[in-house]
Amino acid sequence: MSINWSQVYSGPIGQILSDLSPTVFTDLATQESQSQLTTLQDELSSNKSEISAWTTLQSDAQSFNSALHTLTEASTYNQLQTSSSNNVVTAVDSSALAGQYTLTVQSVAQAEIDSGTAANMTVTDPNSTLSVNGTTMTGAFSLSVGGTTINVTIPTGGTSLNGLASSINSAASAANAGLTASVVQNGQGDYVLELQATQTDQPITYADTSGSPLYDLGLVSSTGTGTQSAANVLQAPSAAEVSFGSTFNSADAVTSSNNTFSNLIPGLTVTVNSPGTTTISVTPNVSAMEQSVQTFASAWNQWVSDTQSLAQAGQVVASGSGASESFSYQANSSQVLTSAIPTAVLNQVQQLLGSYSTNSGSLYQSLANLGLTFSVSGQLSVNSTTLNNAITTDPSAVQAIFQGLQSSLQSGGALGIVSGFSLGPTSTTGEAIDTLTQQDTNIQNQETLLNQKTTAEEQQAIVHYGQWVNQVAQYSQQYDLLNAIFTSETSSSNTSGVL
Question: Where is the Flagellar hook-associated protein 2 N-terminal domain (predicted)?
C-alpha cells in the first residue's frame, strides 16, 4: 500500500519520503541481483533456441539417413501392385509373383431370401392382429439356418405381422442365428413376411410345431410338423465359384462362402463382385518406388532449408540470367547457431551426392542419371519422367546407386558423415544438445540462488526503509520544533520594536 507522505509531513520532508518510496528503495537495493537475473534469463532463452536448432538439424539428418537406407533395401524395389481388366473381381495385397492371372467367376456367394405369400391369408395392415378366416392366428414354429434353430411362439392374444417379425429377430439375436425378418409390401399392395439368411451357402428350413402359422403366412407349402423348405424362394443360397482360364471349368473350380478367396493366388486376396471373366495383372509398383526417391529428395531439401535458416549467417543470391545475371549477399536475420559444423557437414554430403558414380555398365550410374539434380541453393529437384524410366528400365541399377552412396557416406569412420553428425549422444548434434542442456541446468541453479538472494535483499531493504523513515520522522520533529522556536522569537522581536 502506498502512503501519501505529503499529507503526513509538509515541506521538504514529505517530498523526500514521496520521492523515495518502498518500491524505489527495494529496486535500488536489488538492482545488481536483478541485472544478473536478466543476464541469466537471456542466456537460458538463447540456449533453448540453440537446443531447438540442433534438435531440428539432428532430426533432419536422421530423416535423410533413413530415406537413403530405404532406397538401399531390396524390398523397396520388389513392391508390386495389382489391377484387373474389369470389375468382376477386386484383388488386394501384392506379394504374389509378378504376372497375369485369368479367372472366370461362375457365381458369387449369396444368401437365401424367402418370402411369404398372400395365398392363404391377406394382410393389408402390418400392425393389425393376424387372423385366418376371422380367427386370431396362434401356434408356434421353428426356423433353422447354419445349424442354429430358433423357436417362436405366437402369444395367446395374437400378434401383428410387424410384431411377428420383431419376435423372430429377437429370438435370432438371442441365439446368434444368421437370420433377419422384415415386412415388405408386394405388388398387389399386401404385406408379407420376408426372411433372409445372413450367411451365404446356408439354406433356411421351417417347421410348424403347433398350429400352422408358417403355412398360413405362405412360407411353406403344406401343413404339418415336419421340416420343410421354403415355398417361395426369392434367392437361393450359393457359394462363389471361380476357376482359372477364360472359360469356367467346374472340375477345377474353387468355392468360397463369402466371396473372398485368400488362397486362390498365393500372395493375393481376391474378392469376386459379379460373374464373368477377368485378368488380374501383378506388376512392379513403380509409383511406390518413385515415392521413396521423392521422400529421399524431400528429406534432403528439408535439411538444406533448416541448415540455411538456422546455421548460416547469409547466402549469395543470384538474380537474372545469362549476361544480365548478378549476385548479391543476403544476411540471415534468423540465424541461431554460430557453429560452422552444420554447413560444413551439409556441403560435404552434397559434394559426395553430386559427384558419386557407380562406374558400372548401366545407363544409370549417378543421381543425375536418375533425374535428381542440385539447384544453386543446394535443393534437389526430381525429373519424374527420367526417374520413372530409370526405375522401369533398370531398378537394380537404381538400387546400386543408393547402396554406393550409403557406403561412401559411411566410409572414413565408424559412423560416417551423416551418422557422425546426428546419431547418438556422441554425435555432433548429440554433444551440442547435451552441453547446452547442462548449461541450462547450471543457469537454473544460479537463478534459484539469485532469486533467494534477491528475496533476502528485498526483506533487508524493507527493514532499512523503516529505519530510514523513523530517522526522517525524528528529523521532521526537530525541524518543526526549531521552526516553531524561530517563528516565536521572530514574532517577539517584531512586537518589541513597535513599542
Answer: 26-111
Q: What is the pLDDT along the chain (499 residues), one digit of tens a residue?
A: 455 555 555 556 556 666 666 777 777 777 888 888 888 888 888 889 999 999 999 999 999 999 999 999 999 999 999 999 999 999 888 788 889 999 999 999 999 999 999 888 999 999 999 999 889 999 999 999 988 999 999 999 999 999 999 999 999 999 999 999 999 999 899 999 999 998 887 899 999 999 999 999 999 999 888 899 999 999 999 899 999 999 999 999 999 988 999 989 999 999 999 999 999 999 999 999 999 999 999 999 999 999 999 999 887 777 777 777 788 888 888 899 999 999 999 999 999 999 999 988 889 999 999 999 999 889 999 999 999 999 999 999 999 999 999 999 987 555 689 999 999 899 999 999 999 999 888 888 888 888 888 888 778 877 787 777 777 767 666 766 776 777 776 666 655 554 4
Same domain, 340 and 455: yes
Rounded Cα gap, residues 161 and 183, in angstroms: 7
Does residue 498 belong to any structural domain of this protein? no
Where does residue 186 rank: exposed (0-12), middle (13-18), buried (19+ CB within 10 A)?
A: middle
Distance CA 426, CA 176 (A): 62
**Cα–Cα distances in angstroms (integers) from residue 491 to residues 11, 82, 410, 496, in the given order:** 21, 120, 104, 9
Least Cα distance to 162 among 131, 130, 135 occurs for 130
The torsion angles phi and psi of 137, rounded to 5 degrees, stand at: -70, 130
Dump the DSSP string for 400-421.
Answer: HHHHHHHHHHHTTSSS-HHHHH
Structural domain includes residue 127: yes
Same domain, 248 and 208: no
Distance CA 467, CA 441 (A): 39
Length, in residues, of the chain: 499
End-to-end Cα separation, the chain, in angstroms = 55
The whole domain housing 273 covers 80-109+239-284
Distance between CA atoms of 368 and 34, rounded to whole angstroms?
59
- Domain check: are 293 and 259 in the same one? no
